[in-house]
């Protein structure tokens, strides 16, 4: 049997409790703390029903983990439920035994700090404003993008003033959950039953695919621009991203989990990018360029071998972060899978998007890296013609940024690669 519930606080008591937090605590203060006014068991159910549609943790983990104050929880809860339920929710969130951290933390921010600009990135990483000509493939591979501080601020969990946060403004739409045979809802339910990582991945795979399902008239992220609903797509993807991220936070994971988890972070950036580059979408997603760069970087940092480098490199270049762009392109290049043409495309992206004064050292690095691959027997067998084109394009794009003597050196490397391809 349930314990008898304490009498409900009057509005006056509630007002006192609310104001208590803004005033210095007086010893012997009679106001009971908010947490004691509610029933945590009822609060758990209320959270699941009234909050858990948007807060994908469903049990309130995120609200507890980011240590929002009782008054903040109460204030936010009152936007969705009555005072009784709101106090129950406060009591429930307080009762959760989870690691707590500041609401201001930018989770997964590389190296845990934000640099102020592009130059600081270079000097912090390399000791000077140049691409070091001593850097080897192994040396670059050892620089983990999750650890290298950058001048791109990752989102906070909740930002009431802007869309630079993980929290989606809306629940994941029923029209996507129930489409077809309802597989998406079934897999989500299965994960919620077992909480296993396998079921998480399998839910993420169908959630990620649902937003671009051509056969579903309500899918907001379908490739054709005439069917794209950018704001909705952005929000749906934030929901899925926050759903995956809270699993990592709950289990204190800070390494790569699975591409189904990290790709959707990248995909948030992808829809933001489309609104920047396509006519007719201005203002659909506020802070579009920042969102493009941040979310793509977040996805890429966990899986540096994935994604063609021109997407993020172009965003970094537009954001006056060309040194970051060079780093991104070359760090992606050294992670590419064997047999792939991607490292050849990366080479051309060094002069296309990278820092102009670094074109000589950057492209020399990229060419050397391609030679190492070829020497090791790694050839882009299915795309030889494209690989040759990219190697040639890289040189052509580099010429305006290098001296005649440097161009000779680059030409020598180019011809060596073409000879071995
Ligand atoms: C319709 C979606 C939705 C529902 C339902 C919802 N929230 Fe939220 N919540 C958000 C969003 C979005 C944010 C991020 C801040 C913003 O954009 O306003 C947020 C942020 C918060 C925050 C942090 C506020 C801060 O100071 O940054 C708390 C606490 C919170 N919600 C509690 C709740 C509780 C408790 C409930 C249920 C009673 C609830 N929310 C229901 C969407 C929702």
What does this structure look like?
With 421 residues, the protein is mainly α. It folds into two domains: 11-95, no CATH class; 110-335, no CATH class. Helices cover 54% and strands 0% of the residues. It has helices at 11-20, 40-51, 61-65, 70-77, 83-95, 118-126, 137-141, 174-177, 183-194, 197-210, 230-250, 259-277, 288-301, 309-318, 322-333, 342-353, 359-375, 384-398, 404-420. Helix 15 (322-333) packs antiparallel against helix 16, helix 17 (359-375) packs parallel to helix 19 (404-420) and helix 18 (384-398) packs antiparallel against helix 19. The protein binds heme C. Heme C is lined by residues 50-51, 53-55, 63, 68, 72-73, 76-77, 80-81, 89, 103, 158-160, 165, 167, 169-170.
List the helices and strands and how they pair.
Elements: H1 11-20, H2 40-51, H3 61-65, H4 70-77, H5 83-95, H6 118-126, H7 137-141, H8 174-177, H9 183-194, H10 197-210, H11 230-250, H12 259-277, H13 288-301, H14 309-318, H15 322-333, H16 342-353, H17 359-375, H18 384-398, H19 404-420
Helix pairs in contact: 2-5, 4-5, 9-10, 10-11, 11-12, 12-13, 13-14, 14-15, 14-16, 15-16, 16-17, 16-18, 17-18, 17-19, 18-19
Bound molecules: heme C.
Heme C binds at residues 50-51, 53-55, 63, 68, 72-73, 76-77, 80-81, 89, 103, 158-160, 165, 167, 169-170.
Characterize this entry briefly:
With 421 residues, this protein is mostly helical.
């Amino acid at each position: 049997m349930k314990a008898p519930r304490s009498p409900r606080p009057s509005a006056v008591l509630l007002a006192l409790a609310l104001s208590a937090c803004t005033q210095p605590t007086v010893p012997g203060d009679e106001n009971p703390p908010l947490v004691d006014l509610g029933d945590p068991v009822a609060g758990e159910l209320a959270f699941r029903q009234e909050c858990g549609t948007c807060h994908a943790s469903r049990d309130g983990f995120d609200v507890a983990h980011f240590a929002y104050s009782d008054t903040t929880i109460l204030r936010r809860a009152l936007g969705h439920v009555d005072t009784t339920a709101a106090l129950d929710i406060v009591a429930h969130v307080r009762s959760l035994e989870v690691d707590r951290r500041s609401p201001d933390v930018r989770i997964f921010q590389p190296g845990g700090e934000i640099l102020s600009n592009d130059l600081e990135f270079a000097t912090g990483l390399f000791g000077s404003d140049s691409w070091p000509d001593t850097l080897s493939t192994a040396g670059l591979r050892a620089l983990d993008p999750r650890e290298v501080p950058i001048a791109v601020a990752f989102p906070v969990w909740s930002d009431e003033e802007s869309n630079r946060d993980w929290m989606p403004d809306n629940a994941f739409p029923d029209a996507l959950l129930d489409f077809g045979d309802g597989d998406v809802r079934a897999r989500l339910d299965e994960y919620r039953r077992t909480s296993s990582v396998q079921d998480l991945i399998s839910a993420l795979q169908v959630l990620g695919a649902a937003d671009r399902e051509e056969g579903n008239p309500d899918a907001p992220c379908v490739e054709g621009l005439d069917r794209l609903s950018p704001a909705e797509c952005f929000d749906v993807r934030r929901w899925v991203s926050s759903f995956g991220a809270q699993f990592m936070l709950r289990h204190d994971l800070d390494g790569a989990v699975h591409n189904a988890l990290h790709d959707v972070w990248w995909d948030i950036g992808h829809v933001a990018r489309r609104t920047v580059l396509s006519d007719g979408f201005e203002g659909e997603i506020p802070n579009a360029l920042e969102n493009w760069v941040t979310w793509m970087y977040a996805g890429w940092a966990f899986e540096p071998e994935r994604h063609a480098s021109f997407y993020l490199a172009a965003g970094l270049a537009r954001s006056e972060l060309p040194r970051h762009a060079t780093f991104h392109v070359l760090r992606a290049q050294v992670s590419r899978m064997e047999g792939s043409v991607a490292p050849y495309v990366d080479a051309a992206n060094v002069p296309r998007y990278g820092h102009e004064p670094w074109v000589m050292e950057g492209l020399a690095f990229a060419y050397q890296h391609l030679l190492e691959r070829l020497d090791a027997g790694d050839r882009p067998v299915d795309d030889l013609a494209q690989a040759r084109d990219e190697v040639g394009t890289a040189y052509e794009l580099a010429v305006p940024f290098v001296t005649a003597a440097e161009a000779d050196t680059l030409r020598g490397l180019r011809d060596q690669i073409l000879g071995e391809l």
